[in-house]
Amino acid sequence: MSYQEYLAARDTVTTIGQPVISVIFIFSLALGIIAIYHMLSNDSRAFRLASQLREIDTALLVIGFIIIAWFHLRIYQTIELVYPPELANYMASTMGTSTTPSRFVVPLWIETEKLYFWTLCLSIFLAVTNYRYDFIRTKITALFSSAMNIMLAAFGILTYYTSNPFREPLPGLHLEITGWYQAASVGDPNVLYATLYQLYFRIIYFYNSEYMWTHPPMLFIAYASLVVTFVGCVFMLFRREKIFDHISYSHAKVGYLLLTVGMLIGYPWAVVAWEGKDWWWDPKINGSIMMWVLYSAYLHTRIYLKRHNMWRATAILGITCFLSLVFTYLLTYIAPGIHAITQ
Amino acid sequence: MRPEMRMKHKTYDFYLMILTAAVLAIIGLVCLYGIGYYTYTNGTMPGWTKTALYGQYIDSMNQLIYPFVVLLLVALGLCIPKRIVPRQSLLVSGIGILTITLLIALMTEIGTSLAFLLAISIVVQAAVMVLTILGRGGLTYEREGYFVQTGSSMLHLGTVIFVFDFVSMRTSELHLGVFWVATALITVGTVLSFYPEEAGCIARLLRSGGRSS
How far apart are CA A296 and CA A174, in angstroms? Predict the structure, then answer.
C-alpha cells in the first residue's frame, strides 16, 4: 500500500464519481422543472414523473455516497504515517497516550462532502415522508410534495456547482497527505518532524476524532429534517391544513433533538481541541445559539397553535428559524473565527 | 378544576409562553449582534482576538446575555416551584427569589446572583423530577402522561444544571463531568417529551421481558 495506490483511488473516484454527480445534476434539474410544471398546471402525470425522478435521484445520491465511503476506506488502507521512534515517544508522552495514530479514519462529511451529505439526508427524509403520506390525495398536498421536490432539486444543483465532492476529492486532506510524502522524500528530519507534528494533531483532533464522527453528521441530519419543517411552515402561511403542521412538527422534533445533542457534544471536543485558542463567542457559535433559541421558540409557540393568530405566527417563526439555519451554515464561509473555512 | 379556572390557567400559561418566545428571540438578537461585532472588528483590526479587546467582547456578551437568561429561567418557571406550589403562591415565591437575586447582583456581581438563582432552580427542579418519577406530589403539568412529564422534568433539570455549569463551574475540574450529566438529562428528557408513546411501548416491552402482549 502506498501513495501511488492512494492517487489511483483518488483518480478512480473522479472517473466514476463525476458521471454519477453529472447524472444527479441532470435528474435534479429535470425534477425541479417537472415539479414547477406540476405546481403551475396541477397535472397528475407530472406529479408521478416527479416522484419517479426523485426516487432515481435518491438512488444516485446513495451510489455517490458509497463511492465516497469507498474512497475513505482506500485512504485508510493506503496511507500510513511512519513516525521516527523519538518523535513517536515524544508525542505519546506529551499527549499521555501509548500509541501514535498512523492511519487516517476520515469522516464522510468533511470539506466538499458536507453539502452532498446534507442533500443525501434530505432525499432520504423526502423518501420517508412520501412513503408515509399520500400526497396525491388532495391538490394542496400534491403541491406541497412538489415544493419539497423543488428544494431537493435546488440542493442537487447547488451541490454540483458549489460543493462537488468528485471534481477534486478532499483537496485539503490531499494537500496534507502529499505534503507528508514530500517531506518524507526530502530526507530532512526537521521538515519531516514539523510535518508529522502538525499532522499528528490534525489526526487526533479532527480526522480520527470520535466527535467528528458524531457532531457534524447529527447537525447535517438535523438540517435536512428542518428543510422539511421549513417547507411545511411556508404552506402553513397560505393554508390552515393540519397535515402541514403535523409534518413540520414531526420533522422539527427530529431536527431539534439532533441539533441539541449535536451542538452539546461538540463542546467537550472544542474545550480539548481548541485549548488556548480564541473560540468563545465566535460567529459560528453565536449563530448556532441563535438558531437553537429560535427553534426553541418555534416549539413553544406551536403548543398554542389553536389560539388566535398563533397559526400564522408559528409559521413565520418556523421560516425565520430556517433562514437562521442557512445563515449559520454560511457563517463558516463568510465570517471570521475558529470555524472559518479559510483558517 | 372549574372551566373558568381552567381558562385562566390556560391564559396564564399562554402569556408565559409568549414571554418565553420573546426572551428566546432577544437572546437570538444578542447573538446576531455578537456575529456583527466580531466580524466588523476582525475586518478593521485583524488579530484583535489576541488583544484585551477580545476579553472585553466576551465580558460584554456575558453581561448582555445574563439578564435574559434570568428572565428565561423565570419565564420557564425553572426557578420557581410552579409544579409544586399552588399558582397563587407562585407570584410571592417568584418575586421573593427575584428580589434576593437582585440584591445579590447589587451587592456583588450579576454572575454571583445568577449562580444563586440557578442553585435554587436546581433544587426545585430536582425535587420536581424525583416527585414526577415517583408519581407523587400532585404536580401540575400542561401535558398529560407519565413519560411526557418525566421527560419535561428531566429536560428542565438538565437545562438549569447546564446553565449553572457554564456560569459558575467553567474553571472547575468538575466542569465537563457536570456538563455530561446535564447533556444526558437534556437528551433523555427531550426524547421522552417528544416521543412519550414510543417510550411507553419500549417500557412495556422491557417490563414484559420482550414478550409481545
Answer: 40
User: If we measure between CA atoms, which residue out of A229, A70, A327 comes closest to residue B39?
Assistant: A327
Please answer whether residues A340 and B57 qualify as being in contact, where contact means their C-beta atoms are separated by less than 8 angstroms.
Answer: no
* Helix count and strand count (H, E) for chain A: 11, 0
Spatial neighbors of A325 by CB under 8 A, at least 6 apart, are A223, A226, A291
CA distance B190 to chain A (A): 7
Helices (DSSP H) in chain B: which residue ranges?
3-44, 52-75, 87-107, 110-134, 146-168, 175-194, 196-207
Supply the ipTM of this predicted assembly.
0.88
Q: What is the pLDDT of residues A272-323, one digit of tens each?
A: 888 888 888 999 999 999 999 999 999 989 988 888 889 999 999 999 999 9
How would you label B39-61 residue by residue, b for 16+ Cβ within 10 Å and e otherwise?
bebbeeeeebbeeeebeebeeeb
Q: Which residues of A touch B (CB under 8 A)?
A: 253, 256-257, 260-261, 264-265, 267-268, 271, 278, 280-283, 286-287, 289-290, 293-294, 296-297, 300-301, 303-304, 307, 317, 324, 331, 335-337
CB contact under 8 A, A300 and B17: yes
Q: Which of A219, A335, A330 lies closest to A269, judged by CA?
A: A219
Read off the pTM. 0.91
Which residue matches cell numbers 457534544? A265
Radius of gyration of chain B (CA): 20
By 3-state DSSP, what share of chain A in percent is helix, strand and coil, each rounded to 5?
80, 0, 20
Q: Which residues of A touch B179 (CB under 8 A)?
A: 264, 267-268
Quick one: which of B23, B33, B99 has its CA closest to B68? B23
Dig out the grid coordinates for A310 from the structure.
398563533
The answer to whether A260 contacts B190, with C-beta atoms less than 8 Å apart, is: yes
CA distance B57 to chain A (A): 9
SS3 A73: helix
- CA A162-A122-A127 angle, to 5 degrees, is 135
| Greatest CA separation for chain B | 69
The Cα of B87 is separated from the nearest Cα of chain A by a number of Å equal to 20
Where do we find the cell 400534491?
A142
Close Cβ partners of A22 (under 8 Å, ≥ 6 residues apart): A160
d(CA A30, CA B113): 60
- Give me the mean pLDDT over the B36-48 stretch: 93
C-alpha cell at position A260: 441539541
Dist. CA A271–CA A287, nearest whole Å: 18
Residues in chain A with pLDDT < 70?
Answer: 1, 96-98, 342-343
Distance of CA A106 to the CA centre of its chain: 15
- CA dihedral sign of residues A6, A8, A11, A15: negative
Distance from CA of B197 to the nearest CA of A (A): 14
